[in-house]
Amino acid sequence: MSRKSRALPPSPFRRFNSSPEVIRLVVLMYVRFPLSLRNVEDLLFERGIDICHETVRFWWNRFGPLFAADIRRQRVSRMRGYRHWKWHLDEMYVKVNGEMVYLWRAVDHEGEVLESYITRSRDKSAALRFMKKTLKRHGSPEAITTDGLGSYKAAMKLLGNANKQEVGRWANNRAECSHLPVRRRERAMLRFRRMKTLQKFTAVHASFNNHFNQERHLVDRQTYKQRRSAALVEWQNLFA
After folding, report:
1. CB-based contacts of 95: which residues, under 8 Å, 6+ apart?
2. What b/e string do you get for 99-116 counting C-beta neighbours within 10 Å, with b at 16 or more?
3. Mean pLDDT for back-to-back runs of 10 residues, the chain (240 residues)
């Protein structure tokens, strides 16, 4: 007897009247570009797609994490094979409902955002949780560049990789510059109201930014167009 083929997982779009192409476009426009919910609604209306801004909110909350998880799964499996992998760790202030919290971010030497983590403090305990989460998912790098915050040194000492820490005056510019897309998106969203929303959005935004960031300032026009087309094809094939 022939072996029965394994059943394919159900499509995440199966209970929606709109086509998967429209849903992907809506999620892409809202997460990737600094647009508000109503901006996306108006731009889609010009294309003949009539949806409410609350539909945009629902779709990005429903499908954004699914798309981001699939992108992250494919990229993590490739990045683990790097031999000379260097990380940059940094934290930034973000206001959530009037309260200042800390967004910890790990970026590799090529600008890929590896991990985002939200805490109310930036002490040793917070740094330790952030680094454990990053190491568990991405493995161990060759070197870790940080700023002069003492929490990093204390956490790395407990983890046993203090010898990998590098601290320099401008050595962590890679991580500092990676905050700019988050700041632009934060202004477009008129801040965040809950830490849970901030955690979800920064994780989804990082995966989208990694996927579509083709470093256009480092390559010629033809190479950039080829990479952009390849990234778009991969995006269109998510859950196809």
Report:
1. 101, 191, 192
2. eebbbbbbbbbeebbbbb
3. 59 88 94 92 95 95 93 74 80 91 92 92 95 90 92 95 90 89 85 90 92 84 92 86
User: How many Cα atoms sit within 13 Å of 226 on the Cβ side?
Assistant: 5
Q: Which two tokens stand for residue 70?
A: 């699939």
Task: Give DSSP secondary structure letters for 166-205.
Answer: EE-SSTTHHHHHHTHHHHHHHHHTT-BS-HHHHHHHHHHH
Question: What is the Cα–Cα distance from 158 to 228, expressed in whole angstroms?
Answer: 42
* This prediction's pTM: 0.84
Non-local (6+) Cβ contacts of 50 within 8 A are 44
Say which amino acid occupies 69. A
